[in-house]
Design brief:
Elements: E1 3-8, H1 12-22, E2 28-34, H2 37-47, E3 51-55, H3 63-71, E4 80-85, H4 91-99, E5 104-106, H5 111-122, H6 130-139, H7 160-171, H8 175-182, H9 186-200, H10 205-214
Helix pairs in contact: 2-3, 3-4, 6-10, 7-9, 7-10, 8-9
GO biological process, one term: phosphorelay signal transduction system
Modified residues (4-aspartylphosphate): 55
Domain Response regulatory: 4-122
Length: 223
């Protein structure tokens, strides 16, 4: 079945361009468009897309709040959100990731990257290199807790090894790099990452990295 995509951007010309790119792919189907966050919420409820391609800076309701409502508790469907941004270090991106986005992509990314990003997000993976997540969080550390707050109770549900893996995910290491660092197989790392996501109620490794920073487990700028 084709991946159902909703385009959300306040610039009609950009939406038209994205539609032309995506409709050239047999496994992708653009099911609707929206010009702001409020329209996006209406369209998500009506069309039940698999992936929402979401701009962040829009009138009436921005992409961050729309993302929060689409992916948050009581959401109407399983839609994943892929955030589009003009700048690779946009402060809105941090907030969008915290709100539940599965990743972000630059608006000027090549067509093949846009297509691949949608496929990856639809499959339940995170379209964002952990190293980029860390760079974003480091740059906007002022938006995050100082680290002096009590450790969330949820962290106590993790084993010692799972905590190690979570820290390495937040540092920007891939599964292969984590496996080499801990002297275990990549399959074992994937299992640990899966346990971390399940225990903490997180959707993907992007949210896991954000959680590690927000909980104080990893400090911005730490190695």
């Amino acid at each position: 079945m084709a991946i159902r995509v909703l385009l959300v951007d306040d610039q009609p010309l950009l939406r038209t361009g994205f539609r032309m790119i995506l409709e050239a792919e047999q496994d992708l189907a653009v099911v609707g468009e929206a010009g702001d966050g409020l329209q996006a919420l209406e369209q998500v409820r009506a069309l039940q897309p698999d992936v929402v391609l979401m701009d962040v800076r829009m009138p009436r309701m921005d992409g961050v709040e729309a993302t929060r409502q689409i992916t948050g508790p009581g959401r109407d469907g399983p839609a994943k959100v892929l955030v589009l941004t003009t700048f690779d270090l946009d402060e809105y991106v941090v907030e969008a990731l915290r709100a539940g986005a599965s990743g972000f992509l630059l608006k000027d990314a090549p067509a093949n990257e846009l297509v691949q990003a949608i496929r990856v997000v639809a499959a339940g993976e995170a379209m964002l290199a952990p190293s980029i997540t860390r760079r974003l969080l480091d740059k906007y550390a002022g938006h995050l807790p100082s680290g002096d707050e009590p450790v969330p109770d949820a962290l106590n549900t993790l084993t010692e090894r799972e905590v190690e893996v979570l820290k390495l995910v937040a540092r920007g290491l891939s599964n292969a790099e984590i496996a080499a660092d801990l002297f275990v197989s990549e399959t074992t790392v994937k299992t640990h990452v899966g346990h971390v996501l399940t225990k903490l109620g997180l959707r993907d490794r992007v949210q896991a990295a954000v959680y590690a920073y927000e909980s104080g487990l990893v400090r911005p700028g730490a190695q």
